[in-house]
Design goal:
It is a single chain. By secondary structure, this protein is an alpha/beta fold. The protein folds into 3 domains: 3-68, Winged helix-like DNA-binding domain superfamily/Winged helix DNA-binding domain (Arc Repressor Mutant, subunit A, Orthogonal Bundle), CATH 1.10.10.10; 89-161 and 268-301, Periplasmic binding protein-like II (D-Maltodextrin-Binding Protein, domain 2); 167-262, 3-Layer(aba) Sandwich (D-Maltodextrin-Binding Protein, domain 2). Helix content is 44%, strand content 22%. α1 crosses α3 (29-43).
Length: 302
C-alpha cells in the first residue's frame, strides 16, 4: 500500500462518495472507484460498505485512516515550509489558538505585532484544544495558545501566560448586575447558559456548583465560552466563563462579576519541544506576553 493509495482512501472516507473524492483529488469518478476496488483486492479485505450510494468505511478502513493521520499532517507541514521557501517568506509565522484565546487576547497582540512588523505574514487559525496541540506537535503551526491546558504535554514546551478565576457574565441591566459577587445559588432563578459537559470548561463550571452544593440546572448549552458571552451580550441570559472570553464582545454590552466560589484557569503558550521558534514567532510571543500583562494590569486597577 503506497501513499497515493492512502490518499485516495482518505479522500473517499471524507467525502463518502467516489464523485466527491474525485473532485477533491482532480480525478474522474471511475478512476477513483477502480482504484478503491484494486486496493481492496490487493489488501484482501473490504474497505467500504455501500449503502444508498454512499460509502461507509469499515473498521479496518477507519483504523488505516486514523493511523495514517500523522503521516499526512507531517506532509502538510512540509508543504507549507516549502511554500515559505519558494515565496521567500523569511518573515511568516503560523499560529493557532483555542477560542478563549483566539477571540480575546490574540487579536489584540496581533494588532500590536503588525504595527511593529508590517511585512511579516501571519497564518492564524482557531480550533479545539486537541487540534491545537496536534498542529503544534506536527509543525503545522509554530505557536499554539490554549486555556485550561490540564495535564502535562510531554512533546510540547509550555509557558503559562496568565492565571485568573472564572467569572459570571450577564447583559446590562440584568438583576444580578447589582451584586458585586455572584454565588452559584443566585443563578437558579435566571436563564443560565451552560458550557458543554464534554468540554474541559464545561466540567470546570460543574465543579463550581458541586463545591457550593447547588444543583446544576441550565436553559441553554453551548460549546464555547465566547458563544456564551455573545448570547449574554444579546440579553439571552447569564453564564460562567473563563476570564478572557468576555473580551470578545463589546464591553458596554455585558457586565462581568467575580464568583464567590473560586475556580482558577490558566492561559498558556505551547510550542514544539523538537524544534526552536523562528525569529518572527519569538517576536509574536513577546506581543502576546505584553497584551496579557496589559489585561492583567487593567483587571488589577478595576
Amino acid at each position: 500500500m503506497n501513499l497515493r493509495q492512502l490518499e485516495l482512501l482518505r479522500a473517499v472516507i471524507r467525502n463518502e462518495t467516489t464523485i466527491g473524492a474525485g473532485r477533491e483529488l482532480g480525478l474522474s469518478q471511475p478512476a477513483v472507484s477502480n482504484a478503491i476496488k484494486h486496493l481492496e483486492t490487493q489488501l484482501g479485505f473490504p474497505l467500504f460498505e455501500r449503502i444508498n450510494n454512499r460509502l461507509f468505511p469499515t473498521m479496518e478502513a477507519r483504523s488505516l485512516y486514523e493511523d495514517s493521520e500523522p503521516i499526512f499532517s507531517l506532509h502538510a507541514a512540509l508543504e507549507l515550509r516549502v511554500q515559505d521557501f519558494r515565496e521567500h517568506k523569511a518573515g511568516h509565522v503560523r499560529i493557532i489558538a483555542t477560542p478563549p484565546m483566539g477571540y480575546s487576547i490574540i487579536p489584540k497582540a496581533l494588532s500590536a505585532f503588525r504595527r511593529d512588523m508590517p511585512n511579516v505574514k501571519v497564518s492564524f487559525d482557531v480550533r479545539r484544544l486537541e487540534h491545537v496541540l496536534d498542529s503544534v506537535d506536527a509543525g503545522i503551526a509554530e505557536l499554539g495558545f490554549v486555556m485550561a491546558l490540564g495535564e502535562h504535554q510531554p512533546m510540547l514546551d509550555t509557558e503559562r501566560l496568565y492565571s485568573g478565576s472564572m467569572v459570571c457574565v450577564m447583559p446590562l441591566g440584568h438583576p444580578l448586575a447589582d451584586k458585586t459577587i455572584i454565588m452559584p445559588e443566585d443563578l437558579a432563578q435566571h436563564t443560565f447558559i451552560a458550557l458543554d459537559r464534554h468540554t474541559r470548561m464545561g466540567n470546570l463550571v460543574r465543579t463550581i456548583f458541586d463545591k457550593a452544593n447547588v444543583p446544576y440546572q441550565f436553559s441553554i448549552e453551548v460549546r464555547y465560552c465566547h458563544a456564551a458571552c455573545i448570547l449574554a451580550s444579546n440579553g439571552v441570559g447569564v453564564a460562567i466563563v473563563d476570564p478572557l472570553s468576555p473580551l470578545c464582545v463589546q464591553q458596554d454590552a455585558i457586565v462581568v462579576r467575580p464568583l464567590s466560589t473560586s475556580c482558577e484557569v490558566s492561559a498558556s503558550a505551547v510550542q514544539s519541544g523538537k524544534r526552536p521558534l523562528s525569529r518572527v514567532a519569538r517576536a509574536f510571543l513577546r506581543s502576546v506576553r505584553v497584551a496579557m500583562e496589559q489585561h492583567a494590569t487593567r483587571n488589577t486597577q478595576v
